[in-house]
Amino acid sequence: MKFSNFFIPTLKDVSSDVKMKSHELMIKSGMIRQETSGIYSWLPLGYRVLKKIINKIEKIHDEGGVNQILMPTIQSSDIWKISDRYETYGKEMLRITDRNKKELLYGPTNEEMITAIGRQYIKSYKTLPRKFYHIQSKFRDEIRPRFGVMRAREFLMKDAYSFDIDEKNAEITYHDFYKLYLKIFEELNIPVIPVRAPSGEIGGNLSHEFHLIVESGESEIFIGEDVLKKKFNELSYKEVLDLKSFTDDYYKQTNFTEKLKSYKSIEIAHIFLFGTKYSSSFKFDVDSDKGKFKPFMGSYGIGVSRIPAAFIEYSNDKNGIIWPHSIAPFSIQLINLLTDDNQCLDFCDKLYIELIRNGFDVIYDDRTERPGIKFSDADLIGTPIQIIIGNSLKKNNEISIIKRKEKVEQKININEINNYLSNMLRKVI
Amino acid sequence: MKFSNFFIPTLKDVSSDVKMKSHELMIKSGMIRQETSGIYSWLPLGYRVLKKIINKIEKIHDEGGVNQILMPTIQSSDIWKISDRYETYGKEMLRITDRNKKELLYGPTNEEMITAIGRQYIKSYKTLPRKFYHIQSKFRDEIRPRFGVMRAREFLMKDAYSFDIDEKNAEITYHDFYKLYLKIFEELNIPVIPVRAPSGEIGGNLSHEFHLIVESGESEIFIGEDVLKKKFNELSYKEVLDLKSFTDDYYKQTNFTEKLKSYKSIEIAHIFLFGTKYSSSFKFDVDSDKGKFKPFMGSYGIGVSRIPAAFIEYSNDKNGIIWPHSIAPFSIQLINLLTDDNQCLDFCDKLYIELIRNGFDVIYDDRTERPGIKFSDADLIGTPIQIIIGNSLKKNNEISIIKRKEKVEQKININEINNYLSNMLRKVI
Lengths: 429, 429
Hints:
homodimer; alpha+beta; Rossmann fold; 2 domains; nine-stranded mixed beta sheet; five-stranded mixed beta sheet; 14 helices; 23 strands
């Protein structure tokens, strides 16, 4: 992608309302734009990050045999009256009246709707388990939306739902999702910690959240000494339950005698096993050879549009964002410092094509801007590798390669480029 | 994908409210489910079709240098008051009041928001042209939602927007989108006809719609004798304007002396060149060496979630849907008629893996249902190729291949399968 054809409206300053580093960097790097309080557009650079996260979530869910669907954003109040949450959900629910005076709402979550879907079609125990997911906008009318997309009113969520024949099978499904989530975050290079949580308004008796430890986080988690050394995805169901790793609420509720270490953190995913709470209120009966039963359900959410902000909060420096290859909008930023020099122009154009041919995600800064602006933009948007072409090419047949994270510059003779690239390729793709 | 792991809740009967063939077939084949009036969920089979359409639209837009973004569904009334459409849009606009009594709305389209975005960031003529697209839910509160996803209230739309320095450049961009749309529909195997249209509530003076000719269509288009023979994507801008191919409205407004032939049709896309209508009301000024100017804009929409319905309306028979490979949820339906026979089971399992390894999208009917149900489900959901394994395998080492469209059965000896598949592969992928 050529910078000149790709809209990255970087900004020098942001409004004084912007209090959180990730919010500031997302606005400055032209990733997002606030449209109104708590409601954001994702601009091209931000959308690329979001898309990489979505693609990974889809891939791992598909591999896990979870069926992708798409439920609508607007729901009828009818189904929320069945579960009794229409009244109890409170003011965060965006209530809407249509032209025929029918009560609608913008879905804050989809337990009710998926239960209505299951109830219509799932008739026999033979077709269970069933697992569904969708990636859809949600709306929660926060009283004080803040921190950009971290606590937005309209946000993108991946929510999955499961139906099982009994509690034991539902626990297996829950554990499968626990591992599936760890796999997603591992492949995204986001080091989350699973923590036990109370199940709150969704109901039920088993729940975990996935947190990213960050100084500036709004949440607090409590962790036993050896927890951070564990390989979470290798834990058995029993070990998952025994893990000394808790949300603030859970830790305080349960009066642990042992004192655990606390960390500030950001919640980015949440799973629930709530059993028959919704299948009961929906009178959702399934036939089996032992008579009718209510299926056991769980729900599993990932705060998709919160992840870029959470990760930036975790990984930045004074110059900007530091992306890993897994979610970087681009892997390589090719910077031509001498756009009016034919030799440099020609070299860059060829290298750009060569990099693309090798499968790299490249942004090619072909603008006629000053070097200072190109460097600061590259650091700000956080591309993992910068390749710089300028005077060294003309003098010594050399180009510079800077790794964004380490900020270490390496000069390479142009004869070594192919070698260097194929080494890099092995690491990056 | 194994049928047993993939949720396809086919139904025998539909409600008597269902009047249109595509609506009936989408409900019967388990593609969609109505959640409330004019609001649908896309179930796994339907979502696969939608996803293939989305992927193609994204690919062609990306290749065309159009930057993908994601604007929110919920908008502030403020920007709609600037364009004066907050009052004029009428009752189809879903108006919402949030907990702080702020007036919001569910976006029926995004001209206002993209103009606000452009106005903030686009300061110099040097950065023009700019082209953006997003694929996002829209809501139009139709008084009488009907025909399933064909005329839903919540629907998925791809909308693109362009900014140019003057009318001449805007016309070039408009013509580029005209060709880009034809390319999308060509690759999707949907034979659309571009027709000139009045520009209506969006404003401006140039507009085309893309229609699919279908007996049951709600629209009517008027076409000159030689139009259907044209290669639309090869037309110059002047030829585009001269083409005798019009919407009903346009034809009647312009009092043609020549009588054109009329066809019933379904509109699936619409492009507008509206010039400075929104940049003027937003006081959106851009600098140039000749002073300030208002950018020339266009917008370009595709009714993404309407396409599956429109195509089904165009391509079905008494047994169900007839998909082309381009948008079929699966390309091959592998049907095992003898699931309790080890030889057949073993053969099918191996063939299934072989087909996947060759890159085919396969649905493997591994259910223990009667042959009649498997055949009628396969015809209903419309998979282009059915591969049937049963008694012929045991007796003569033969399998059957049925092409859904032609309904022609071909017997093939199992030694010829590899050959047959590699031939098919060349045609399908």
